[in-house]
Amino acid sequence: MSSAKSILLIDYESSVREVLQVCLSEIGGWNVIPAASFEEGSASLLTQKLDAIIMDNVTAKRDSTKFIQKLKANPLTQSIPILLITHKASWYTRQHLQEMKVVGAIAKPFDPVSLPVQISQLLGWNSTVPAD
């Protein structure tokens, strides 16, 4: 059985989602569960044990703040750390992120090579590459 961390990745842009998935699984060594929408991500929450959720907060279909509030209100998902990956990362102050109960915000465009280390640091995970 793998000891790799499992990350739910929610991004509505398929090209960005694919780059993130490859980056996080190949470089980060994590098990990545991709989702194109909050609805699809919600379905994964019911079937997967997750160590983190990485999501873009900009979608035309649903408000990310309401989705985050729903996760944080549910005893089964409230302890899962959430990171935003967004073009609007600079809009968020540390206080705003704390109020949203989000660990951090990463700016798009991102550096695929350093992204896993950045995510590990924000989540407080050991940032070394996993051993085979």
List the helices and strands and how they pair.
Layout: E1 6-10, H1 14-27, E2 31-35, H2 38-47, E3 52-55, H3 64-73, E4 82-86, H4 94-100, E5 104-107, H5 115-123
Parallel strand pairs: 1-2, 1-3, 3-4, 4-5
Task: Walk me through what this model shows.
By secondary structure, the chain is of the alpha/beta class. The chain has a single domain (6-123), classed as Rossmann fold. Helices cover 38% and strands 17% of the residues. The chain contains 5 helices and 5 strands. The protein has helices at residues 14-27, 38-47, 64-73, 94-100, 115-123; strands at 6-10, 31-35, 52-55, 82-86, 104-107. A 5-stranded parallel beta sheet has the order 2-1-3-4-5, with helices on both faces. Strand 3, helix 3 and strand 4 (82-86) form a beta-alpha-beta unit. The two termini are 12 Å apart. The model has no long low-confidence stretch (mean pLDDT 88). Keywords: Phosphoprotein. This is Response regulator.
How would you sum up this structure in a few lines?
With 132 residues, the chain is of the alpha/beta class. The protein has helices at 14-27, 38-47, 64-73, 94-100, 115-123; strands at residues 6-10, 31-35, 52-55, 82-86, 104-107.
| CATH top level label | Alpha Beta
Discrete helix count:
5
For the largest beta-sheet, the strand count, sense and barrel status come to:
5 strands, parallel
Q: What is the rounded Rg? A: 14 Å
State the CATH topology: Rossmann fold
Calculate the mean pLDDT score and round it.
88
Q: How many strands appear in the DSSP assignment?
A: 5
* Strand line-up in the sheet with most strands: 2-1-3-4-5
Topology as a string of helices (H) and strands (E) = EHEHEHEHEH
Separation of the first and last Cα atoms: 12 Å
Strand content: 15-25%
The CATH architecture can be given as 3-Layer(aba) Sandwich
The CATH superfamily label reads Response regulator
Q: Would you identify the regions where 5 or more consecutive residues have pLDDT less than 50?
A: none
Overall outline: globular
Keywords: Phosphoprotein
InterPro entries: Bact_response_regulator, CheY-like_superfamily, Sig_transdc_resp-reg_receiver
Protein name: Response regulator
Pfam family, one: Response_reg
